[in-house]
Amino acid sequence: MKIGFIGAGNMAQAIIKGMVASGSFKASNIFLTASTSERAQQRAQQLGVSASLNNTSLVKEVDCLILAVKPNKFEGVLAEIGSVLVEKQPIVVSIAAGLTLDTLANLISEHSAQKIIRVMPNMNVTIRKGVSALCSNLFVSEDDITAVEKIFQSVGSTYRLEEKDFANFTSIAGCSPAYTYLFIDALSRAGVKNGLPKDIATKIAAETVLGSAETLLNVEETPWDMIDKVCSPGGTTVAGLVALEDEKFISTVIKGLDATIKRDSELGK
Ligand SMILES: NC(=O)C1=CN([C@@H]2O[C@H](COP(=O)(O)OP(=O)(O)OC[C@H]3O[C@@H](n4cnc5c(N)ncnc54)[C@H](OP(=O)(O)O)[C@@H]3O)[C@@H](O)[C@H]2O)C=CC1
Ligand SMILES: O=C(O)[C@@H]1CCC=N1
């Protein structure tokens, strides 16, 4: 299967690197474009794949088209390639936040039976530890979605979800690497406040977050069970936990994620 990426930024580059590194996809079957043909050539050369002349010729070349531009570029790009898409009928995959299957179909053509799959990956595809969700419209067959699932399984784990759950998934998987970095940075700053150099404090914090997540995935217990295991009676951890909850740590995090869900629905309008 020939796979094309419109957009060669952070996400497309991470996915392409992971696909090639997995050994399941040939670089010679991967094509891309960017905002200019010079940029596309440069990115393609770095990744060892091919640059197409422009978006229209890329669509003509591929069986699966991955739209990896920012959500505000979709209208322009789909207007540009709409008629070629209707003619060629590749599987169209969008990784944009917010844009629904119906919105995407309408941007392509009012009356097309275009196969469209929405995927929400996260930045951890860079190290092939991404978590991606997929949903599709009624024109997509089981073989089509399995083929696209393979792409994202080459860069991490995948979940098939109903579209109604996509904004929720986007908040806890698509966006949360940023919130996790914020938490790591906060731990590290506390370390600096109390006397450690920043680079060492950041490494200690990141290794601890990684190990805590790996531990949780390897036990039957819930996060709360694990919290109780770290809190010695009358000890240091429970003192910190109570102070964090005094500042409403849990509801603050939930408010942050609710804001992403609200923004997701605004992007879809
Ligand atoms: N970043 C993240 O963590 C995640 C992002 N997403 C989604 O992925 C999508 C891409 O995000 P991200 O990779 O971060 O964005 P980037 O800004 O890094 O990349 C966007 C790419 O689109 C290219 N581009 C812009 N206009 C055109 C055009 N008309 N034709 C072809 N290419 C064009 C840009 O070209 P140039 O390089 O020349 O500027 C760039 O390569 C977004 O829709 C976002 O919602 C989903 C999950 C996670
Ligand atoms: O900020 C965004 O809109 C994208 C979607 C998920 C992560 N980044």
TrEMBL record:
The reaction(s) catalysed by this protein are: L-proline + NAD(+) = (S)-1-pyrroline-5-carboxylate + NADH + 2 H(+); L-proline + NADP(+) = (S)-1-pyrroline-5-carboxylate + NADPH + 2 H(+)
| GO MF annotations, alphabetized | pyrroline-5-carboxylate reductase activity
The Pyrroline-5-carboxylate reductase dimerisation domain extends over 163-267
Pfam family for this entry, one = F420_oxidored
Q: Which InterPro entries match?
A: 6-PGluconate_DH-like_C_sf, NAD(P)-bd_dom_sf, P5C_Rdtase_cat_N, P5CR_dimer, Pyrroline-COOH_reductase
Chief location category: cytoplasm
Positions of transmembrane segments: none
Task: Report the locations given in the UniProt record.
Answer: Cytoplasm
Domain Pyrroline-5-carboxylate reductase catalytic N-terminal spans what residues?
A: 2-98
Q: What are the alphabetically sorted keywords of the record? A: Amino-acid biosynthesis, Cytoplasm, NADP, Oxidoreductase, Proline biosynthesis
Identify the metabolic or biological route this protein is part of.
Amino-acid biosynthesis; L-proline biosynthesis; L-proline from L-glutamate 5-semialdehyde: step 1/1
Q: Write down the superkingdom of origin.
A: Bacteria
- Cite the EC number: 1.5.1.2
Q: What does the sequence similarity comment in the record state about its family?
A: Belongs to the pyrroline-5-carboxylate reductase family.
Function text:
Catalyzes the reduction of 1-pyrroline-5-carboxylate (PCA) to L-proline.
- Protein name stated in the entry: Pyrroline-5-carboxylate reductase
Gene this protein is translated from: proC
